[in-house]
Design goal:
membrane, 79% helix, 311 residues, Tetracycline Repressor, domain 2, 2 domains, single chain, mainly alpha
Length: 311
């Protein structure tokens, strides 16, 4: 859909925008704070695991810039996807479809935060990290939101890279570069993203059909989506253990991440088996919720071991 077609659709929308009447909480909602919290956490873990050191003040600046960059991406995503958000039950109460903030206000807000976060990170920390943050924002907004999301059922697979970059940006803030270890942190989130979102997409398939978004369950069918969830979960499990095998996590992490990976695969297999009615719905919700716990625990364990090693 072209920008002109999107504007025509939004002009015909039932939404009435009250420009300038958005509250502070409405602008905070534009930042997607739940997504931002995950970005902050994973970026901080990447920073703590990186070799070398960074001044605490500069470290705080780096995390703040990464958080603001993530929020800017969220605001620009909501600006571009306002037409989709209006027809999906999960997103209909967001500030733009709810008429609290205009698309133009959201766009200006997102652009301002994007430029400010990138320049601040580059000037005060290092330009490699600043450039990496700029690439991450552009990837999420242009590659995922504007292109992949509406054009291919592989939108989450490829676009998921944007959400996997923060630990590498955190690492780069300390070292001025990236490494294989930081790439493994990226790979964990990258492989985690498809089964996490496809479990939700199975549950919310009707919303995506209504909005015309080619999510995998809509385009390839629920059976194929269940196969893909199981395949990605099986691939994810050993990648989650990789920090132990690469020598920057302990045996305790290796055992714990292995058990968490087995639980993840078991729940994915449950989705694969249960395909009808309420039991199928519950299996999807169970994996979706557990996947959040899984990712949090992997990074929390890595962070905990880093903090203990630094004492």
């Amino acid at each position: 859909m072209s920008l002109a077609e999107r504007q025509d659709l939004m002009d015909q929308s039932s939404t009435v925008w009250n420009g300038g009447e958005g509250s502070v909480s409405d602008y905070v909602a534009l930042l997607k704070p739940r997504v931002m919290s995950l970005v902050i956490f994973t970026a901080f873990v990447g920073m703590m695991l990186a070799p070398g050191s960074i001044h605490p003040v500069l470290g705080a600046v780096a995390i703040l810039c990464i958080a603001i960059g993530a929020g800017a991406s969220g605001a620009l995503n909501m600006w571009y996807d306002a037409d989709i958000d209006e027809v999906m039950s999960r997103t209909a109460k967001r500030p733009i479809p709810a008429g609290k903030i205009t698309p133009e206000e959201a766009f200006a807000f997102g652009i301002t935060l994007s430029i400010g976060s990138v320049l601040t990170l580059g000037l005060l920390v290092n330009w490699f990290a600043g450039a990496f943050l700029a690439f991450t924002i552009a990837f999420y907004v242009v590659i995922y939101t504007m292109w992949l999301k509406r054009s291919t059922p592989q939108n989450i697979v490829i676009g998921g890279a944007a959400g996997a970059f923060p630990p590498m940006v955190g690492w780069a803030s300390v070292t001025g570069g990236v490494s294989l270890e930081s790439f493994v942190l990226f790979l964990i989130i990258f492989m985690w993203t498809p089964p996490h979102f496809w479990a939700l997409a199975l549950f919310k398939k009707g919303d995506y059909e209504t909005a015309g978004v080619p999510m995998l369950p809509v385009v390839a069918g629920e059976t194929n989506t269940r196969h893909q969830i199981l395949i990605y979960s099986i691939l994810l499990a050993p990648i989650g253990v990789a920090p132990y095998f690469m020598g920057y996590a302990s045996l305790f992490y290796g055992v714990a991440s292995g058990l968490l990976g087995l639980a993840f695969v078991a729940m994915a297999a449950d989705i694969w088996r249960k395909r009808e009615g309420d039991v199928a719905r519950k299996a999807c919700i169970r994996l979706f919720k557990f996947s959040i716990f899984y990712l949090f625990m992997l990074f929390a364990l890595l962070l905990g071991e880093s903090l203990v090693a630094g004492i």
